[in-house]
Write a structure and sequence with these properties.
The chain is of the alpha/beta class and 381 residues long. It contains 13 helices and nine strands. Strand 7, helix 11 and strand 8 form a beta-alpha-beta unit. Helix 1 packs parallel to helix 4, helix 7 runs parallel beside helix 9 and helix 12 packs parallel to helix 13. It is globular and about 60 Å long. The termini are far apart. The structure holds ligand G3I. The site of ligand G3I has 10 residues, from loops.
Length: 381
Amino acid sequence: MKLLALFVLAAGFTYGQSTPSTNLKDAYKGLLRIGVAVNSQQFEERNPTDDAIIAAQFNSISPENALKWQTIHPQPDGYVFDSADHYVAFGEKHNMFIIGHCLVWHSQIPMWVFRDANGKPLTREALLERMHDHIRTVVGRYKGRINGWDVVNEALNDDGTMRQSPWYQIIGDDYIAKAFEFAHEADPKAELYYNDYSLENDAKRKGAVEMIRKLKAAGVPITGIGLQGHVKINGPTAEKEAETIEAFAALGIKVNISELDVDVLPRTTRSNSAEVSTNAAGGAQSNPYTQSLPEEMQQALAKRYGDLFEVFLQHHSSMERVTLWGLQDGESWLNNFPTRGRTNYALLFDRQDHPKPAFAAVLNAVKTDRETSHKKQKGDK
Ligand code: G3I
């Protein structure tokens, strides 16, 4: 079955009513890069089926966990680069635009980072020096090879105020500017992004726009924003997505969708937040599709993806990249968030690595977009 899926993908397949003639990265060429977050099985080439699809369909990769502080710098004097080296080599082998994720975040970071040898909180100067060392070492190692970095991740609360992370509490709000300066110093040619979730929500977006406006005014080398795009089947609306892209594009920075997936399961929390520390209980009702996704939902998911990509295409001149947060449904973090052990269907490929109707919808969106602009051009003449 898996071999059949590969053959069909390589040959240019027919799915449902559409007959896309090409793959994602070629279909979107000249408009948007199409990326995927990869796990260690994939970039260490231990999953040939996934790898063939990744190579055929995508022209950018993000490391799902391999470059996080906890993975790469677990001890004060101990960097562990094996996994990250494989990740970068995999991207180079396939000529991809390689993303580094992420340098400064409050999560997946060991607690020693914020403490001295006696377990006391570090001073501002000492923490800045530690941040500088980390960024210089990690960005410096991949200088000219990693093309874009998520420099600061998730620094804002849902209401748009600064998150009271240890970074903020110890250094103060210029920790963000410092992180960008250190990254720029280590690789002046790399693109540097601020990355966050729920930026479609008015309050948080307002806070982020204000923060970036100030950074730009102070000459901080920020080149883009990553709208994570962990969305639900029914929201935020495509209009809200458009408004969000436009708000950041107006600041003169590039807009990327950095972690796209679509949660189809019932909500088990009050908030829509992608805050990773959330862990909610859920009964059988919260996990209704353990065997398969009903056709009606499958089509709704396809429509949702199609609508979102239509918006991305309309804004392609302000954007560079759309990255899916994972290749196939079985590997998605959304099977364990915010409730562990559920069966979600968030991505473009199913658990057997077959393309879903959502995949065809993403291809159809660009096909339609190209046909429409072609007709418009003809009409303009
Ligand atoms: O590596 C350990 C393994 O040794 C252990 O056996 C296993 C047992 O649970 O856990 C493994 O670590 C897991 C890790 O992923 C690697 O698979 C952690 O428990 C798990 O919490 C961690 O989840 C990651 C999450 O970030 C943690 O913050 C997800 O894979 C990853 O998709 C997710 O990605 C984040 C972005 O970095 C930032 N934006 C939100 C996005 C989704 O949460």
